[in-house]
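Sorry to interrupt, but I need a hand with the structure work. Go ahead and set the record down below:
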Amino acid sequence: MSSENRPLSPHLQIYRWQWTMAYSILHRATGVALAVGALFLACWLIALAGGADDFNAVQAFSTSIIGRVLLLGWTWSLFYHLLNGIRHLVWDSGRWLDLKCAELSGHAAVAGSVILTLIAWAIAYM
C-alpha cells in the first residue's frame, strides 16, 4: 500500500462512537466546569469578605439571567460528575463492566443528574 492511499487517522476506522465514550468526555467536561465554578465560588467568598459593595456586585451577576444559567449548569455538572463518579467506583469493584450495563448506567447518571438538579433548584426557590 502506497503512503498516499493510507488513511491519515486509522483510529477513525477502528473506533465506533459509543455512549460510553460520550459519557467519558462529558465527565471530563463537567470536571472542568466544576473547576470554573470553584473559581466563581472563591470570587463570591472574597467579595463577601470585601464588603457590601463587592458582594452586591457579585450577587447582581449571580442573579442575572447569565448568572442563573451558569449556576444551573454548575449544579447539573456537580450532580452528573457525582453520579458518574459513583458509577466509576462501581466499575472499580468489578461490576457493571459489560457494554449494556455501562450504557444503561450512563443513561441513569444523566437522568439522575437532571432530576437532582431540578429537585435542588425547586428547593432553593421554594
